[in-house]
Structures are given as structure tokens and as C-alpha cells.
Amino acid sequence: MKNVTITVDDAALEWARIEAAKRNTSVSRLVGSFITEMRRRDDAYVRAYDAWRADTRTWRSDGSPYPSRDETYERGQGAT
Question: Which are the contacts of 67, defined by CB distance < 8 A and separation ≥ 6?
């Protein structure tokens, strides 16, 4: 694990101290947790985007007509 020095304005540091106390942790661990969470979210987004880009399915009709609005509504009423 590495140490890092950051510059933060007074109001942000005060918030971080209070938030760390609420979570029963240090400001250092709080900042580390935020960075880890941001990295996890970014990784998940990239994986989802790559999966979407690799999807080769086509969303085309097989030629049959779509149901009319009335037919769709009637089917919905029969299910209840």
C-alpha cells in the first residue's frame, strides 16, 4: 500500500472528517474507499459497454406484422 498527499479545501476536509467519524474509520481509509469504489464502477461500465459492442444480434422483424394497439390492449386485459 502506498501513501499519497492530497490538497483539499477546509470545508471538504471538515466534511471528510465528519463522514469518516460517522463510518468509524479514518479520513485516509475513507478516501481510499472512495477511489476503490470509483474504480469498481468504472470497470463495470467498461465491461458492460464492451459486451454491448460485441453483441452481434440483430433486432429485426421476421417479416410478420406487429400486433395492432387494440390487439395488444386486449391481450393485456385478458391476463388480469
Answer: 75
In a domain, 38, yes or no: yes
Q: How does pLDDT run across 45-74, given as a tens digit for each residue?
A: 999 999 999 988 877 778 888 888 888 888
A 10 A CB-CB count for 41 gives 10
Tally the domains of the chain: 1
| Span 21-30, pLDDT tens digits | 999 999 999 9
Is residue 41 included in any domain, yes or no? yes
For the whole model, what pTM was predicted? 0.57
Taking CA atoms, 54 is separated from 12, 17, 44, 47, 50, in Å, by: 41, 44, 15, 11, 6
